[in-house]
Write a structure and sequence with these properties.
Organism: Aureibaculum flavum
Distance between the termini: 42 Å
InterPro entries: 4-PPantetheinyl_Trfase_dom (IPR008278), 4-PPantetheinyl_Trfase_dom_sf (IPR037143)
Radius of gyration: 17 Å
Domain 4'-phosphopantetheinyl transferase: 105-198
Protein name: 4'-phosphopantetheinyl transferase superfamily protein
Structural class: alpha+beta
Keywords: Transferase
Strand order of the largest sheet: 7-11-10-9-8
Mean pLDDT: 94
Strand content: 25-35%
Length: 213
């Protein structure tokens, strides 16, 4: 089974990443879905989406959960019935989860693509990154910024929250593999820890609900 990577963030938080290499038939083995989730999978037109969905159930199994332990609220946000915190992501051939026993968490995996250069103005201020002369490095950096904002949105998830107007990611170096980000919304300011890692042309970014100031 291609459990690609396991990261122990701290004693209460863990990240697991799966590389989807198996067929849907192989991924179906050993996994029992609720009727609701089975209907959801049956309704998926994309084979890769089906495989992604099932690989996440294998990630859950790695940490002792079954499909029935997971439920989604009215906003589509996943929750665990035992009260632990979870966030889920899927991008092409990779899926990932982050779990914490104590704090809200968010995770995002993104494939590094030039497309992000065309849409960067929608989620950040491009002038902040004009000093980066290399397009490849710019794509890497913008992918982290986007992923950080996605992960934070999964934590905060309030109607009207804007990636561009309300979430700011502090500048960082690739070597640090971490930074901070701030959400300023409805007269409230919160700062979070952001971590990132790169593999096979993808970027995984995850956020911890740890208020620093």
């Amino acid at each position: 089974m291609p459990l690609y990577k396991t990261l122990k963030v701290n004693q209460n938080t863990k990240v697991l990443i799966w590389k989807i290499e198996e067929s849907i038939e192989t991924l179906n083995k050993g996994i029992t879905l609720t009727d609701k989730c089975q209907n959801r999978v049956d309704g998926m037109k994309s084979e890769l989406h089906k495989r992604g969905f099932m690989s996440i159930r294998h990630l859950l199994a790695e940490v002792g959960y079954v499909d029935a332990d997971l439920y989604y609220d009215e906003f589509g946000k996943p929750h665990l019935k035992d009260g632990n915190f979870i966030s889920i992501t899927h991008s092409f051939i990779f899926t990932g989860i982050i779990l914490s026993t104590t704090k809200h968490v968010g995770i995002d995996i993104e494939k590094q693509r030039d497309k992000i250069l065309r849409i960067s103005h929608k989620f950040t201020t491009p002038e902040d990154y004009y000093h980066i002369p290399n397009e490849y490095e710019l794509v890497r950096k913008l992918t982290i910024v986007w992923g950080a904002k996605e992960a934070l949105y999964k934590i905060y998830e309030q109607e009207g929250l804007s990636f561009l107007q309300h979430i700011y990611v502090d500048d960082f170096s690739f070597e640090d593999t971490e930074t901070t980000a701030t959400i300023t919304y409805k007269n409230k300011k919160s700062t979070y820890q952001i971590h990132f890692l790169e593999f096979e042309g993808f970027m995984c970014t995850y956020a911890l609900d740890e208020v620093i100031n």
